[in-house]
Design a protein that fits this description.
By secondary structure, the chain is α+β, with helices and mostly antiparallel strands. It is built from 20 helices and ten strands. β5 and β6 form a beta hairpin. α3 packs antiparallel against α6, α6 runs antiparallel to α7 and α10 packs antiparallel against α11. InterPro entries: SusD-like_N, SusD_RagB_dom, TPR-like_helical_dom_sf.
Length: 531
């Protein structure tokens, strides 16, 4: 559903629910006004629930969060991503490592405490409660991932009470979330008709459960949950064309399980302009690293470090996994009726100039047909997928592999993702044991979900931060692009180097610092280790 088509309903979000600011539980909902006038009909209850949906997740997180990882580099220090990867985030200056936000939780708690006052059909009421519980629980999932222990507040609280709550252990939060997903799944429909499309479904609840199970090494649970989503009555499937999957024309396709929905002008996403390069009036904020480019296999299924792969370092993009060109705008790629050139000093996209890609690479995934899809890149209705069916297939394969249950179904799940992208099936003679399959699946997750905000979680749970984040960010080889053909002439001895070396302390950086302003308000909060 383009949820905010129901513009009249948004008075809840803007008037009644606007009191919750970024500070943790800084204000209680203004229910003295609303409770006496709001809960009189199904449309009123729907308006209140729409207020809970408003801002539950952000497209900014999807397109920017890989800047916390080895996938991407943000050239603008004031946006707050590179200071984090350099190890400089502190409780006082968190940069963009700040997801401590209880606005949605407060709104959902308030809704759940009052919905029984509305004279509506019991079945509808049950469904609406399940939607609100999911939206609340998603926030706890996200916060517990990046902070560990956080306060688990399941009712509205006064300002004074908010400043006295203590953190719940992360293990307790995870247990609660999995119980919640089990409890609400049956109250949610498989899908919605018409303008209600986009509300939380049964599949979304199970998919979030599968993600939580995988991230917490509950492989048995993850396998079982994924099997449900891979079977009837669910009808999820991979979209036929990976390169077209992220365009507006593909909205609501069979691969989408959970997405953030925007509507141009009324509930617009105003940040797509951070992606394109200077030549298209963009900012090149999300620059892609050479490290990510190197992760893509050759089209024959071999990695570029395999002597038999056919990889040519001075023609590095030839015969590569098609997802590379679908995801990354790189030197010599034809896009918007010309060949992208960040290497020529006279080019409007020269890598050393303002609003140009400092690594020579930027994100193409959400803008493959920029001028065709958008007439104003700062006012778009693009939806951003949070969970899609490809994740279920790869989560199933990973869980089975880690549980020591490698069988034909593991290869079949991976092959579906690979062949959809135009890659060959897994070479079972090469990837014939747990260690080899683990490397393959991790690489497959990285390239399949690049720039979709999942890489940080994977680095965190695999405990590979010191290995992959620490060190110098590099970009393309230097050289030239033929403006007429896109042909590359690259210097193998000259590569773009970007920024200061990054740092990663495993004793510290797998969690973010709790903002000091929250600890100043609530002395019961304890800071994460070594901050």
């Amino acid at each position: 559903m383009k949820r905010n088509k129901i513009i009249a309903g948004l008075f809840m979000a803007t008037v009644v629910l606007a009191g919750c600011k970024n500070d943790y539980l800084s204000k209680a909902p203004l229910d003295a006004y609303s409770n006496g006038t709001l809960w009189t009909s199904a449309s009123d209850a729907a308006a209140a629930l729409n207020g809970c949906y408003h801002g539950w997740e952000s497209g900014y997180n999807v397109i920017y969060n890989d800047c916390f990882t080895d996938n991407a580099y943000d050239q603008y220090p004031w946006e707050g991503y590179e200071p984090v990867t350099q190890g400089n985030a502190t409780p006082v200056n968190t940069g963009s490592a700040d997801r401590w936000d209880y606005k949605t939780i407060q709104k959902c708690n308030w809704f759940l405490e009052n919905i029984d006052n509305a004279p509506i059909d019991p079945a509808l009421k049950k469904r609406m409660k399940a939607e609100a519980r999911f939206l609340r629980d998603y926030q706890y999932f996200a916060m517990s991932q990046v902070y560990g222990d956080v306060p688990l507040v399941l009712h509205t609280v006064s300002i004074d009470s908010a400043n006295l709550v203590s953190q719940a252990p992360r293990e307790e939060i995870i247990k609660f979330l999995l119980e919640e997903m089990t409890a609400i799944a049956g109250d949610l429909p498989l899908n919605y008709p018409g303008t209600d499309q986009g509300r939380i479904t049964r599949g979304a609840a199970l998919a979030l459960a599968a993600r939580i199970q995988l991230f917490n090494n509950d492989y048995t649970g993850c396998i079982a949950t994924c099997k449900q989503l891979m079977s009837s009555p669910f009808a999820y499937n991979l979209y036929t064309d990976y390169s077209e999957l992220f365009r507006p024309v593909a909205a609501g396709n069979q691969e989408v399980i959970l997405d953030i929905q925007y509507l141009k002008t009324y509930n617009t996403f105003d940040g797509l302009g951070v992606l394109p390069p200077n030549s298209q009036s963009g900012q090149s904020s999300v620059a892609i690293t050479q490290n990510l480019v190197d992760a893509y296999e050759m089209k024959n299924g071999k990695t570029i470090d395999d002597p038999a792969s056919g990889y040519n370092p001075v023609q590095p993009y030839t015969n590569r996994d098609p997802r590379l060109d679908a995801t990354i705008l790189r030197p010599g790629l034809k896009w918007e009726n010309s060949y992208f050139d960040p290497l020529d000093e006279q080019s409007p996209d020269y890598y050393q100039n303002g609003n140009c890609p400092p690594t020579g690479y930027i994100c193409k995934k959400f803008i493959p047909h920029l001028s065709e899809d958008f007439d104003d890149i700062w006012n778009v209705g693009l939806n951003f997928m949070v969970i899609r069916y490809a994740e279920i297939l790869l989560s199933y394969a990973e869980a089975k592999t880690e549980a020591g249950q490698v069988d034909a179904s593991v290869y079949e799940a991976i092959d579906k993702v690979r062949t959809r992208a135009g890659m060959p099936p897994v070479d079972r003679a090469v990837y014939n044991n747990q260690a080899a399959l683990r490397k393959l699946i991790r690489r497959e997750r990285r390239v399949e979900f690049a720039l979709e905000g999942l890489r940080w979680y994977d680095i965190q749970r695999w405990k590979i931060g010191a290995e992959v984040i620490k060190g110098q960010v590099t970009g393309s080889l230097k050289g030239s692009v033929d403006a007429n053909t896109g042909a590359l002439t690259l210097d193998p001895a000259s590569r773009i180097m970007v920024g200061s070396p990054r740092n990663f302390d495993p004793a510290k950086h797998y969690l973010w610092p709790i903002p000091q302003k929250e600890i100043d308000l609530n002395k019961n909060l304890k800071q994460n280790p070594n901050y």
